[in-house]
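Worked example (supplementary).
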Amino acid sequence: MTASTIKLATTAEDHHIARMAAVALGLTVLENAIPTPLPGVKPGLANIVTLIVLARYGWRAAAWVSLLRVVAGSLLFGNFLAPGFFLSLSGAVCSLAVLALSMHLPQRFFGAVTHSILAAFAHIAGQMAVVYLWLIPHAGIAYLIPIFATAALVFGTVNGLIAARFMDNGDKPEPEPQP
Amino acid sequence: MLAPRHIKSGDYLTLLGGITFTVWITFAVWSGGIADTALIRSGGKVFKEVPLSRDQEIEVPGPLGTSIITIEKRKARISSDPSPRQYCVRQGWIQQAGEIAICLPNEVSVELTGGAKKYDSLNY
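After joint prediction of all chains, the assembly is encoded as:
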């Protein structure tokens, strides 16, 4: 077998996005170690990274980081193309769609907390839509909406506060990668 | 930290909106409406329709024997049933519109109706 070298031309931005996605991935792994009372209720710590990337580098970079995290995370946990993957994906896509709109809110008045809360609600909305349209087409899942909405509110706020705090603290160009 | 630069005034507004939305949707989804009638079925046919306002016990015949449905304080339950696994009895009291207790082996069910029925828990 001949050794072949495939070299992709990468830019500094690519490296940066990959680094951010790796940080997000680290948080995803961390968060999977936390037991949850109800499947689907997760803090979504990786979204802190998405928020920071959004604030600093814009929507395109945030979308890359978020989607890379979803795909790589599913490969890591072995549920690529399984229902859980599509739930993550639909949540991420809906969140990004809402972030694309909410980032145009006046920055003087609306910060990471706003984006985080809106994205969290969009996330559960996207997931519930997939659950209803594909996995459990039964109106009974409506009973779970308040639980997920509460979780979105709480975790959205907390993640937003963490992101805001982080951006307050550091004028560092980028967060330190997690081990 | 005393004056966080990245928490803006509008963020409180969003938080307030989020809380309002969550509270609203909780009430909208979880208050299933006041039930006022118990619809008792036996063998797929309506056996009796009774108001919840009057406390009473109703005996319903089925293929296995007699199920007893108790109505008390605007709630209903199947208090006795000949089914082997007793699922419907163990379900206990039901009180919101749309709730239903079913004894499949004895083909007896009691469903609460009335108020604004949001959805049918059996069909979609």
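Two points are worth noting when inspecting this output. The mean pLDDT of chain A is 89. DSSP finds six helices and no strands in chain A.
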